[in-house]
Amino acid sequence: MEIITPVELIRKGEKVGSSEAALLSKLAIRPFSYGLVVVSVYDNGSVFSPAVLNLTDDDLVNMFANGVSMVSSLSLAISYPTIAAAPHMFANSYKNVLAVAVATEYSFPEADEVKEFLKVYTLLIFMSSMPFNNSTSRIFITF
Q1: What is the pLDDT of residues 83-113, one digit of tens each?
Q2: Residue 56 and residue 54: Cα distance in Å, rounded?
Q3: What are phi and psi of 132, to 5 degrees?
Q4: What dihedral angle (degrees, nearest 10) is formed by the CA atoms of 20, 22, 25, 31?
Q5: Among 21, 49, 111, 137, which is disulfide-ready with 101 (CB 3.0 to 4.6 Å)?
Q6: What is the pLDDT of residue 130?
Q7: pTM of whole model > 0.90?
Q8: pLDDT at site 58
Q9: What is the 3-state secondary structure of the chain?
Q10: What is the largest CA-CA distance in the chain?
């Protein structure tokens, strides 16, 4: 028997018929392998897809981080304190205290730094909006 042109006889996953099997045996080709294909995984009364067998440690860490993020978001939205949301709640509270300190005369060291920054920033914005003429313009700055 002589093969002149390439011919695709069978494909992976297809059932092999008797004529294909006879031709493969004449050519001394034994492409057959036997094994199990996992359709589903059963564990303690729960059924899972076989994809759970392919999870890596990075996948588990990413899923856990995503879950913590969702818990944090939900607890922030409903104002329910959780360990995941506590840092965000403290940061938001600190921002609120700083806003009150800036808007009023109440002061503490960190608020004084923010007030000084806002004074300089406001001055820079004011100066950038003014027309500048070297010969006639004079600006006096006092704090």
Answers
A1: 989 999 999 999 999 889 888 888 888 888 8
A2: 7
A3: -120, 125
A4: 30
A5: 111
A6: 67
A7: no
A8: 94
A9: CCCCCCCCCCCCCCCCCHHHHHHHHHCCCCCCCCCCCCCCEEECCEEECHHHHHCCHHHHHHHHHHHHHHHHHHHHHCCCCCCCCHHHHHHHHHHHHHHHHHHCCCCCHHHHHHHHHHHHHHHHHHHHHCCCCCCCCCCCCCC
A10: 105
Residue 122: burial class (beta carbons within 10 Å; 0-12, 13-18, 19+)? exposed
Residue type, position 122, single letter: T
Contact 110, 98 (CB under 8 A): yes
Q: What is the pLDDT of residue 118?
A: 84
46 phi and psi, to 5 degrees? -110, 145
Instruction: Note the pLDDT of residue 48.
Output: 87
Identity (one letter) of the amino acid at 51? A
